[in-house]
Amino acid sequence: MKNLTLLTLSVAAGVLLVSPTLTRAGVVGSPHDFSRESWNISPADPSSVCGPCHQAHHTDSAVVPLWSHTTSGASFTMYNTTTVPVSQMKATDVAPSPNGPSLACLSCHDGVTAVNSYGGRVVGGSAVTITNRAAIGTDLTHSHPISFVYDSALVTLDTELENPDVTDVLTPVGGTFVAPPSLKINDFLMEGKHRLECTTCHAVHNQVGTPFDITTNPKLIKINGVGADGRGSLLCRSCHIK
């Protein structure tokens, strides 16, 4: 079995740029560009940039639009209010397993499902799996919670969270800032429907925005840099009152 060295990534929908750098980036040249991998030999579109995750026909859009990659069938342990030894999470509606874009992310980052697995079969030789720190694994109690609803009801339960419907995200003076049309926290959530998924923080396609940079933005996060006060962690502090 081959090993694949990747950075922590995620799957996201298209995004708009609000950044000092008006450069069109995209998947090409990013960590999700597998067009030069020897295993990328999909007959319909050899050396495809999009093909490892998406195809035009015969796909499963229940996960993400035009999803062609094998969906992880792993059994995940979710981070929730019963997480031990201690959990500060107040959400009561955590999904029993990752769903939507988070499940798509974990269909490679579970460290089990082969990156070169399309429709349940490995193509291009032996299975290629993620084995470095980008392999999140199936025990999600050690990562930020995903697949839960972040709304005003949760804010009532957890007074250290900003209200996603009225609070704008913190924007950097410089650096990377990839955002939807509105700066309200809820618009960073999945489809503006109060669902917190991997795509809340990460922009997998790195579309129209600051180009991927191994030094300044190795994890394709949507907000990276410092605020007017010279302090960082803007992505975290946009939601958490600390």
Keywords, separated by commas or semicolons:
3-stranded antiparallel β-sheet; 242 residues; globular; 9 strands; little secondary structure
Which helices and strands appear, and what pairs or packs with what?
Layout: E1 2-4, E2 16-17, H1 100-109, E3 117-118, E4 121-122, E5 128-130, E6 148-149, H2 152-157, E7 176-179, H3 185-188, E8 195-196, E9 223-224, H4 234-239
Parallel strand pairs: 1-5
Antiparallel strand pairs: 2-7, 3-4, 6-8, 7-9
SSE string, helices as H and strands as E: EEHEEEEHEHEEH
Q: Which whole number gives the mean pLDDT? A: 84
What structural category characterises the helix and strand content?
little secondary structure
Strand portion: 5-15%
The strand line-up of the biggest sheet is 2-7-9
Question: How is the main sheet built?
Answer: 3 strands, antiparallel
Nearest-angstrom radius of gyration?
Answer: 18 Å
The amount of helix comes to 10-25%
User: What would the principal axes of the Cα set say about the shape?
Assistant: globular
Poorly predicted tracts of residues: 5-24
